[in-house]
């Protein structure tokens, strides 16, 4: 019995199909970029808020100073804001997705000590 040779027609069809898919992917990528231009201001605002939040977390003394000044200048307003903050905090404790988001932001970032690094296998992580 003779050994079967690979079908040359199938590999040509696969190469053509791959080329068509690569071209289609490029077109879709361009369309997505064009449509996403309208969202750019919203993304910039979100980035600005995120940078501000990171700065506040890195400089808690300024928050404490602001709270002290508010308490000294307007004690009734400071107490009402503290009460509102407490109620919001208690309500947020009942939202597991918000707590998960908070923990994710508090986790070490890549390149920082204790950051988890994937090692090319699904589901396994090494810590540095």
From TrEMBL:
InterPro entries the record matches: YqjK
Origin: domain of life: Bacteria
Name of one Pfam family that matches: YqjK
Name of the protein this chain belongs to: YqjK-like protein
Organism: Tepidimonas ignava
